[in-house]
């Protein structure tokens, strides 16, 4: 009898311990409650999204349908038909060769809308320069100069041999940084047209074109507005270039002084200056 009571007591104690812990159902309830609170907070903060404006493609029916279909492949001339004039067709625009469906924004992309100039075409250059009337074309070669400081001479205005070594380095660094800005700008707009910022836009295909033909065209100069908004000069404000330029000037003065005072030593001075330049390159 005592043994049976003890067994019942142990069973009761074990059951009590099990009940005191959190079960699977309770854990699911807690997780569901936290998700609900998170969704409500997101809606109140963003105003229209319960996922903090994060819209992965797999929760968007239109994107899923587009991915199941074959990609839309259009030439630039065919893309013009999707500019919103024909209401039975979707509205497409292209960015850097990729076609996006922006039919959800028909009010602004259809004829009469503020962004109709982008519909039915690849206007990549305009997104970079901001010159929407003049630059609604796909060719954005040279558009990087929008981000190049005004004290950097264009390659067509001054060749490398016309510049000091320091100013050549400065030009290549500034143009390199400008090209990075171009990539960032295109990536930003691609994110918008993929619908990742809240708009119901999505990618559907690509433009079929011969890049070799575009390369044969002359590079378009910057429009007036883009030229006007170029960054201010940075050369004199950049310490490393100021120091390098002063050192280069000192070497040139040393060479000129050697030629004036002792022409026989001019060759030696030139060799010394060349050696100094090599040392500067290593630094």
From TrEMBL:
Q: Which residues cross the membrane?
A: 21-45
Note the coiled coil stretches, chain numbering: none
Give me the stretches of Basic and acidic residues compositional bias.
233-254
- The organism's place on the tree of life at top rank: Eukaryota
Instruction: Give the record's GO CC terms.
Output: endomembrane system; membrane
> What Pfam family is a match, any one?
Cyt-b5
Record carries keyword Coiled coil: no
Protein name listed in UniProt: Cytochrome b5 heme-binding domain-containing protein
Organism the protein comes from: Zasmidium cellare ATCC 36951
